[in-house]
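Reopening this ticket.

The earlier resolution said the output was attached, but the attachment link was broken on my side. Pasting everything inline this time so it's all in one place.
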Amino acid sequence: MLSTDTRRRSAAPAAVGMLLVLAGIAVIALRQVGVDVLEEVGRAGWPFFVIVPGLVLLAMAFVPAPPNGVGFAIAGSIVTTVGLILFYQQSTGHWDSWAYAWALIPGAAGLSMATYGVVSGHREFMRNGLWLGGVAAALFAAGFWFFESIFDSGRVPVDLATWWPGILIAAGLLITLSAVVGASHRELPADDASRTGGDGS
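Inline output:
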């Protein structure tokens, strides 16, 4: 009888294999009705040649036993996000959005890490991913507000010559707070271990 660990290791590759089989059947079925997938992707735009490999990397995240697939999850989310950004920019011609859209890339990495942590049961991935995603979301929101104002009006929405010391203070407080919170989380396991050792259990 197969052990639980063996079943878990074989389940992910089996799921990916079934997805590939279904994808192949779907492509053949579409060809029967006159739809060529590659032609449709090429007509939709070259960014799909970036998006599709990213989706493949995301699927590969479920092949290794956790937590070995987190690298595939992060890489897949980054590549897919870059492809989606390029697709949006090519469709709209809004290439200036790179001024702040880059923040979506670490945000996608954080989201994928957090999701992988939830699925695999690794709370450290979930915590670090949520933190990275939150910081990236804040950067994206600030960049969107700042640069879109410049693109629309040609003027900076805030007087940096006056407010840059306050921005430095806010950034310093944020970095200090994150360092203190991170250090407290890292010290908790050590304290628990020493307390357990001291009890002799």
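Reporter confirms the inline version is readable. Confidence is low (pLDDT under 50) at residues 190-198. The CA atoms of residues 180 and 186 lie 10 Å apart.
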